[in-house]
Design a protein that fits this description.
Elements lengths: L7 H9 L1 H8 L5 H8 L7 E5 L5 H8 L3 E6 L2 H11 L4 E2 L11 E6 L11 H11 E12 L3 E5 L2 E5 L2 H10 L3 E10 L9 E9 L7
Parallel strand pairs: 1-2, 1-4, 2-3, 4-5
Antiparallel strand pairs: 5-9, 6-7, 8-9
Length: about 210
């Protein structure tokens, strides 16, 4: 099968390594990140887990009473995630998202980083359109600069200046806060992550 855009090499990687990726990430405790994201959302609000991976976070949000929609670009991971979180997980690339004003929040944890710098602004626009007015996007990138290929996956790394430049190219969002965390996986504790909460702005102004 041929995959486009969302790093064809990246999706092929997840297809070939779905069970190993699931096993290595499903038990990670990201509750501190969840708390910072959920603080901006209404109780029981509707969340899109965009690039849900193992379904770990979708399940956690469900257990806290939120309405969930989940998608992933890898059919193999989507199947594993669906079993884990008990939701039908749509097989959908980020570039294909076309909901309108549906979600109070979008959780894009370690998913947008597989897009190139050129692909990010139009995908962010799709996410902005999918959010309700004043909706919240959580996203995370490996802390750094530039695009790279590593271990069969493509990454775009961002630091604070890179994120600011991205938001200038995607002015439908404003940055609420950013912070750095260490990777929760035991074998990658030296990796640093840039986490960001973005708020959608008015997409169109009156003439």
């Amino acid at each position: 099968m041929h995959y486009r855009h969302l790093g064809p090499e990246s999706i092929a990687y997840y297809e070939a390594n779905a069970q190993g990726f699931f096993d290595g990430t499903v038990a990670l405790d990201l509750s501190v990140l969840h708390t910072r994201f959920l603080a901006w959302l209404p109780a029981g609000g509707h969340i899109l887990d965009a690039g849900c991976g193992s379904g770990r976070d979708a399940r956690a949000f469900l257990e806290q009473g939120y309405t969930m929609t989940a998608c992933d670009a890898s059919p193999a991971l989507a199947a594993l995630a669906s079993t884990h979180c008990g939701l039908p997980v749509q097989v959908l690339r980020l570039e294909e998202i076309d909901w309108q004003a549906r979600f109070d929040g979008i959780w894009a944890c370690a998913s947008l980083l597989h897009l190139s710098l050129l692909e990010l602004p139009p995908v962010l626009l799709r996410l902005a359109v999918a959010l309700k007015p004043n909706g919240i996007l959580f996203t995370s990138f490996k802390h750094g600069q530039g695009e790279r290929e590593h271990g069969g996956r493509r990454f775009t790394d961002l630091d604070e200046a890179g994120l600011a430049a991205l938001v200038r190219a995607a002015p439908y969002f404003t940055v609420l806060e950013t912070w750095i965390t260490l990777d929760r996986r035991p074998e990658q504790t030296d990796d640093r992550w840039l986490n960001a909460l973005l708020k959608v702005q008015a997409l169109f102004s009156d003439p």
